[in-house]
């Protein structure tokens, strides 16, 4: 408002005071007066202080406005404009700025009141003219500090726009700083939407200022000119933003510090597009000036010049990805695990990693990462792994071909080094991150750098990346890196750079396999010598194919190998193939087959995709050894021509079965070599001579042989021709000529073996030969000895039980004579007769092997066969003796009646009939109340007196105390062993060192409680007693085939209790003309005085022979194994270390969870050591217990070994059973190879035999010991009579108890009372006579109906006692066998309700059923959970909850598939409702928080 008077008229007091201070002639110019008047600062001046402030302010403005210097006057006009445009509150702020800066006392030095005025608070000062005066003085100082061009710009461009540009005093003061001027002024202009003027200002700014960082504002804060880029975009000037970047490029304005400040001040999503555009601008301008990719610092793959020749700006920006990467890693490092996970799911962070990979050169970023600290490198490893899984795979999936074109010209120019990557917007992509869409060159660049950096940092990142892509149905390398493309060459070059020892073509082949990136494979290629392998496999990429096989197998769950183990396996393959072109050629075929087979064929049948492979690199090594042995064996023989056909047949089958097939090569070749020599008349002659005394005493056996001769009077096939003719033979046509016309049976021949039965045998032989032909490509018909044995048993079956004099026949069949095939063919014959068969094999490994081998035969004969399953009506069931007992017990518990009267039992090994310990088994079951007492006793009840508690509880407390005392005497390695796989402990059989996985001992439970975290003691009680004889005697026939019939006493035992007859089956080689089976030769029998002498002699014997033959040392226990092994290593320098195959001194022990290692050690036991420096070849020495001396096949087919006497067995003790001694000797002299053994004993171990007055310690010592043991066995068998009666009585009582229990289980009180009495009888019956047992059982006063009154009518099936459901339903059913020490065998298996580790099944109280992996009693790992309502979850679990990845399905069709945490969807996933509508996105605590919707409906679970 303009005044209507003069200063004197309007403000006389101020005018008078002004004249008083500056003289009467001093007058205030009108413009000065009007400025303050219009600000209303004079009207309010009433007090003396306010008047003094006013006249001082007027004088300041007067002096500035009428200064002689035009710059001062120009500045004053700008200051007046700024003061007018700022609100009164900002005057107060400017005053405060001066006060904080300590400039106020200097400014007020000329004030009439001096320093007192400086104490005035800003709010009061702003109400007077004082604040304006201070602002004018402060502005004068700041104005003077500005550069001329800055003052010009303010006056020309800003003065008229002050109100638009500045709203705060701090903005003005920051702008008036010469270092901050351009940035602050430009920012204010941009905010005022005057971008053009801002760009003009920046263009005028020196380049060194644009590249620098600046500090301004209050509190002080660093800034970067890059911050103006998002401001320009925000205010709608994209062209201006690009122009700004071009200005920076032209000025060469970049520094790492400015980028670091930019990153700290702005959000990542603002920074990343800026950097992409900025780098693109630099590269485009450089390329326009002639700096092509081949000469640029950021050229990525080829044609790089030295850095000194690179363009300056390119050198400057080359560090942008490294600055960005460092910032990202610092953000990641500063978070906890949950924060890290959240950050990795943040889109901007993911895009930041992409920008780093997009802008950097693979070689340069590798060098930069190499300089990072180990902590930063580990952080980057984690970031890259999650980046690939959570982000990059999604981008790749979105841009599958044809959207991505690896052969595009832009990709080719980029990866060949002729161009730099640059970003150019298009109509579809306004900015780089507008969507998941990417150009082909974008993906190519990121993929190249990602793979190069990963292979340098941790190749397993790529392995996981490729595996994750595979699980999503994306074969990444095949899809995005086509063969023979420039992109493939570029990536291969980068991978090759960090994987030494490979050529480019080899790298191209190998890099496509995820297993190639395993640490063991990479370590081998970088560090191990490969010259020998390359020499052996030098043709047609042979070495690369081998490594590709390793990579393929390393991709499976159990395929990982450390570098040394892999080197060992590849060394074995190299050794096997050296010097044998045939072996090399066949191994190359194996490599090709391995690469072509689908993944599912490597897994065991019924396995999940994530399960371990049944065929590993170690398996390849084993196959190579077996193949080399076969090649050496058939060298210079006509059989050699069929070896390739046999191997081809192997390779046509799934790899899961290759190892046993290649292990059988020796058997196949053995058959081919000797089949022409086999002579049927000689076979009958051997049967007659070896069984002369037996047939004289048993006319029935002689009749069986005579009947056999009538039908099998000539071979089924004439083998006199060439072996090759056999492979081409039409077996079915040939054998059809041997069929006989079937005759009508009269009553006399009804139960005889006749033409129809013979035809059945011929068909069985035919199908067996076909099975062998499918397996080996050679139709291997049964030997004469096998056919004769089969026919003798078949004739006995046809006689029927009514006319048969003996229901049990046992035949002695030597080791390696085809016993398993005789059993299978006999089982098939019985089944074809309309009867059922139980094949009893008490060794779990052999049971699995034989059933899987013979399944094809049964299928060809259209016979139903099963394994351990009696309830599905199979005609043939393979099982163990304990399976039979347990099934009988289950039938009792369900009140089912036995129906084995039309079932034949075939026993593999007579041990199932000859009982070494007891003739009955006492089965224990969980007792929950007892378990609770044990837990209480362990925690609190040790010091309680048992007599203060009820009798039942007192008994358990006393048992715990006794078990604790017993535990103190137990020693690891002798009484128990640690299972590091399942994290538990198992008892050991002290005699054989076998692991007793099904045993229950209270001391063992206390050990687990003591050593394991959160373990709950499981207390069990005897609840059933099952007699083996009672189970077996109901079978129609019992046929046995065994390696040893036992002693005369044992034969008498089977004759008495099983009505058994026995005969001998001649060895196959004894029936071949001009050939006899070798017999092990004893080279030494020595009785030493003590254990040290025994050890010395054992070591010296091994030392004397280890340069000639492989050696197996058999000792009593695991402690002795370790002592002997240590002594051997000490005394044999050549055996002190290991070679590529493994240890030179092998300790062969049964260790839980290490079954694969056990078999591997068996494989290498007969392999020579690598050549020593002296050139002498040495053989391995293996030390084992009875575990390795029974049932293991030690393959050896070396001519030099045969010349030196064959495989040497050194035995340090004679077993208690002659049957076991026969098994020991059966490890050597196998097939047509010679064998030898030495017996070195400790006198003190046999003092009870060779005591004073006893047998002299001379003559055949082993025979004396065996005779003594046989006498002891005879006496023991005589003592078992009472046990037999006792067991049979308790068997009957057990049946009655369960029938009563079934009817009265609802009456809890009565049932509990009787149950306690029954358990007490089960615990004490072993010291009672049979009649006492019956009397005590009678005191239970159980009203039990006759055996069959409560039972359901039996059906014609294969069940021991028919039933519908498994009584164990609802309990954990662990994988494994039900084998345990008689007397303490657990029905529910040791891994029952309380031991929950490994694989298992459980039904919860609420009806849910879980089947899968357990750890420490909780669901952990992969599994399946089913709710009673029908919901079903399949996936991962952690600590008892759903966590990880998995899929939940509802009965109505709904499903969620994705990530989980704490039992709820959490992370990325997809949900489909019942109508098929889907949502994909991010879930948090069960709620969908972001994503894409496809359809309609609710997006929550």
What does the model show?
The protein is an alpha/beta fold and 1501 residues long. Helices cover 50% and strands 12% of the residues. The protein contains 64 helices and 30 strands. The strands form six sheets. It has a nine-stranded antiparallel sheet, with no helix packed on it. Strands 5-6-4-7-13-3-14 form a seven-stranded parallel sheet. The longest helix is centred in the C-terminal third of the chain and has 44 residues, at 1261-1304. The model is unreliable at 291-310, 1348-1395 and 1492-1501 (pLDDT under 50).
Averaged pLDDT: 82
Q: Main sheet: which strands, in order across?
A: 22-23-24-25-26-27-28-29-30
Shape: elongated
Radius of gyration: 46 Å
- Overall SS class: alpha/beta
Give a brief outline of the structure:
The protein has 1501 residues and is of the alpha/beta class. It is 50% helix and 12% strand.
Feature tags:
elongated; nine-stranded antiparallel beta sheet; 30 strands; disordered C terminus; alpha/beta; single chain; 1501 residues; 64 helices
């Amino acid at each position: 408002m303009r005044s209507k008077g003069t200063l004197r008229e309007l403000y006389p007091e101020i005018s008078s005071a002004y004249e008083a201070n500056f003289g009467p002639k001093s007058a205030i110019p009108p413009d000065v007066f009007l400025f303050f008047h219009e600000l209303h600062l004079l009207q309010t001046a009433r007090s003396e202080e306010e008047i003094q402030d006013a006249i001082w302010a007027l004088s300041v403005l007067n002096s500035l406005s009428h200064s002689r210097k035009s710059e001062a006057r120009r500045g004053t006009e700008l200051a007046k404009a700024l003061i007018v445009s700022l609100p009164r509150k900002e005057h107060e702020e400017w005053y405060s700025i001066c006060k904080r800066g300590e400039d106020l006392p200097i400014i007020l030095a000329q004030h009439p009141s001096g320093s007192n005025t400086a104490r005035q608070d800003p709010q009061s000062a702003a109400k007077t003219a004082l604040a304006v005066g201070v602002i004018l003085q402060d502005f004068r100082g700041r104005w003077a500090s500005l550069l001329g061009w800055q003052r010009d710009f303010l006056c020309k461009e800003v003065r008229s726009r002050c109100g638009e540009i500045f709203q705060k005093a701090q903005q003005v003061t920051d702008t008036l700083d010469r270092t901050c001027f351009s940035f602050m002024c430009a920012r204010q202009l941009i905010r005022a939407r005057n971008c053009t003027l801002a760009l003009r200002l920046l263009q005028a700014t020196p380049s060194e200022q644009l590249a620098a960082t600046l500090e301004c504002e209050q509190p002080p804060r660093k800034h970067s000119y890059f911050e103006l880029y998002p401001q320009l975009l925000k205010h709608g000037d994209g062209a201006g933003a690009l122009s700004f970047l071009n200005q920076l490029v032209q000025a060469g304005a970049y520094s790492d510090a400015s980028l670091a400040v930019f990153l700290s001040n702005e959000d990542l999503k603002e920074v990343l597009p800026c950097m992409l555009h900025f780098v693109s601008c630099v590269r485009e301008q450089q390329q326009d000036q002639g700096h092509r990719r081949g000469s640029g610092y950021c050229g990525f793959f080829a044609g790089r010049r030295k850095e000194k020749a690179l363009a300056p700006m390119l050198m400057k920006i080359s560090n942008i990805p490294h600055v960005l990467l460092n910032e990202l890693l610092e953000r990641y490092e500063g978070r906890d695990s949950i924060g890290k996970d959240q950050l990795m799911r943040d889109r901007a962070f993911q895009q930041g990693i992409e920008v780093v990979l997009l802008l950097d050169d693979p070689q340069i970023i590798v060098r930069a990462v190499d300089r990072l600290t180990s902590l930063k490198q580990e952080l980057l490893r984690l970031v890259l792994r999650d980046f690939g899984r959570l982000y990059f795979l999604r981008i790749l999936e979105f841009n599958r071909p044809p959207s991505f074109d690896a052969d595009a010209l832009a990709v080719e120019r980029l990866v060949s080094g002729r161009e730099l990557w640059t970003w150019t917007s298009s109509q579809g992509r306004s900015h780089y991150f507008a969507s998941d869409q990417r150009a082909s060159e974008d993906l190519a660049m990121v993929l190249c750098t990602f793979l190069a950096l990963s292979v340098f940092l941790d190749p397993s990142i790529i392995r996981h990346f490729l595996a994750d892509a595979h699980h999503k149905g994306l074969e990444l390398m095949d899809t995005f890196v086509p063969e023979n493309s420039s992109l493939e060459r570029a990536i291969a070059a980068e991978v090759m750079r960090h994987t030494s020892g490979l050529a480019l073509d080899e790298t191209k082949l190998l890099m496509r396999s995820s297993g190639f990136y395993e640490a063991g494979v990479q370590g081998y290629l970088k560090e191990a010598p490969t010259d020998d392998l390359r020499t052996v496999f030098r043709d047609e990429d042979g070495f690369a194919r081998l490594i590709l096989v390793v990579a393929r197998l390393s991709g499976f769950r159990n395929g990982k190998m450390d570098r040394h183990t892999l080197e060992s396996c590849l060394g074995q393959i190299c050794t096997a193939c050296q010097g044998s072109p045939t072996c090399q050629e066949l191994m190359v075929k194996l490599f090709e087959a391995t690469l072509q087979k689908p993944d599912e064929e490597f897994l065991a049948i019924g396995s999940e995709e994530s399960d371990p492979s049944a065929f590993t690199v170690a398996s390849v090594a084993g196959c190579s050894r077996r193949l080399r042995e076969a090649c050496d064996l058939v060298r210079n023989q006509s059989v050699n021509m069929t070896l390739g056909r046999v191997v081809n047949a192997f390779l046509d089958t799934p790899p899961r079965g290759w190892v046993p097939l290649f292990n059988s090569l020796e058997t196949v070749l053995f058959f081919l070599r000797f089949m022409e020599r086999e002579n049927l008349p000689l076979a009958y002659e051997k049967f007659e001579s070896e069984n002369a005394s037996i047939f004289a005493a048993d006319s029935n056996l002689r009749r069986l042989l005579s009947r056999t001769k009538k039908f099998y009077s000539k071979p089924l096939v004439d083998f006199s021709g060439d072996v090759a003719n056999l492979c081409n033979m039409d077996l079915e046509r040939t054998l059809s000529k041997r069929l006989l016309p079937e005759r009508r049976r009269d009553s006399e021949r009804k139960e005889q073996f006749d033409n129809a039965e013979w035809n059945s045998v011929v068909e069985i032989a035919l199908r067996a030969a076909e099975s062998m032909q499918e397996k080996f490509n050679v139709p291997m018909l049964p030997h004469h000895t096998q056919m004769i044995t089969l026919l003798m048993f078949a004739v006995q079956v046809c006689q029927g039980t009514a006319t048969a004099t003996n229901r049990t026949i046992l035949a002695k069949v030597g080791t390696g004579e085809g016993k398993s095939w005789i059993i299978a063919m006999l089982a098939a014959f019985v089944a074809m007769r309309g009867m059922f068969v139980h094949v009893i094999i008490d060794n779990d490994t052999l049971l699995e092997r034989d059933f899987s081998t013979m399944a094809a035969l049964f299928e060809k004969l259209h016979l139903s066969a099963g394994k351990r399953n009696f309830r599905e009506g199979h005609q043939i069931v393979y099982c163990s003796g304990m399976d039979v007992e347990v099934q009988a017990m289950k039938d009792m518990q369900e009140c089912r009646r036995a129906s084995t009267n039309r079932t034949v039992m075939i026993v593999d090994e007579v041990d199932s009939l000859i009982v070494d310990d007891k003739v009955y088994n006492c089965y224990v079951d969980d007792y929950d109340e007892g378990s609770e007492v044990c837990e209480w006793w362990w925690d609190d009840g040790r010091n309680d007196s048992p007599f203060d508690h009820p009798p039942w509880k007192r008994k358990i407390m006393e048992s715990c105390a006794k078990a604790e005392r017993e535990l103190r005497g137990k020693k690891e390695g002798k009484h128990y062993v640690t299972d590091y796989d399942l994290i538990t402990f198992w008892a050991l059989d002290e005699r054989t060192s076998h692991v007793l996985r099904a045993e229950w001992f209270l001391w063992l439970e206390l050990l687990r409680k003591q050593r394991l975290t959160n373990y709950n003691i499981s207390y069990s009680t005897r609840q059933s007693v099952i007699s083996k004889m009672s189970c077996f005697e109901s079978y129609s026939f019992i046929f046995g085939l065994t390696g040893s019939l036992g002693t005369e006493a044992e034969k008498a035992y089977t004759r008495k209790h099983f009505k058994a007859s026995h005969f001998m089956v001649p060895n196959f080689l004894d029936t071949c003309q001009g050939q006899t089976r070798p017999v092990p030769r004893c080279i030494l029998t020595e009785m030493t005085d003590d254990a040290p002498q025994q050890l010395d002699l054992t070591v010296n014997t091994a030392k004397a022979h280890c340069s000639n033959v492989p050696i197996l040392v058999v000792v009593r226990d695991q402690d002795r194994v370790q002592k002997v092994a240590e002594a051997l290593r000490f005394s044999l320098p050549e055996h002190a270390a290991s070679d590529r195959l493994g240890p030179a001194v092998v300790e062969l022990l049964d260790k839980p969870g290490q079954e694969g290692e056990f078999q591997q050690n068996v494989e290498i036991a007969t392999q020579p050591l690598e050549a020593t420096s002296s050139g002498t070849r040495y053989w391995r020495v293996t030390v084992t217990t009875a575990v390795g001396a029974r049932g293991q096949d030690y393959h050896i087919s070396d001519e030099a070994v045969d010349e030196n006497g064959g495989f040497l067995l050194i035995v340090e003790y004679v077993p208690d059973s002659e049957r076991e001694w026969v098994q020991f000797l059966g490890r050597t002299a196998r097939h047509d190879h010679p064998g030898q053994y030495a017996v070195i004993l400790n006198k003190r171990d046999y003092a009870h035999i060779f005591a004073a007055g006893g047998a002299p310690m001379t003559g055949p010592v082993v025979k004396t010991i065996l005779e003594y043991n046989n006498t002891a066995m005879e006496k023991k068998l005589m003592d078992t009579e009472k046990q037999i009666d006792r067991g049979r009585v308790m068997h009957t009582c057990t049946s009655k108890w369960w029938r009563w229990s079934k009817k009265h289980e609802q009456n809890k009180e009565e049932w509990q009372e009787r149950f306690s009495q029954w358990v007490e009888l089960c615990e004490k019956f072993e010291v009672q006579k049979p009649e006492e047992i019956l009397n005590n059982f009678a005191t239970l006063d159980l009203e039990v109906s006759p055996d069959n009154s409560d039972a359901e009518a039996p059906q014609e099936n294969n069940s021991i006692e028919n039933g519908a459901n498994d009584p164990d339903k609802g309990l954990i059913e662990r994988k494994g066998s039900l084998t345990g020490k008689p007397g303490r065998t657990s029905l529910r298996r040791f891994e029952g309700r309380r031991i929950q580790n490994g694989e298992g099944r459980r039904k919860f109280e609420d009806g849910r059923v879980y089947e899968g992996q357990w750890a420490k009693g909780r669901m952990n790992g992969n599994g399946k959970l089913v709710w009673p309502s029908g919901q079903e979850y399949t996936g991962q679990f952690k600590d008892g909850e759903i966590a990880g990845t998995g899929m939940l399905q509802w009965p109505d069709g709904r499903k969620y598939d994705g990530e989980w945490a704490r039992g709820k969807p959490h992370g990325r996933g997809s949900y489909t409702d019942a109508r098929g509508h889907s949502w994909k996105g991010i879930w948090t605590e069960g709620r969908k928080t972001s994503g894409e919707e496809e359809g309609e409906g609710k997006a929550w679970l």
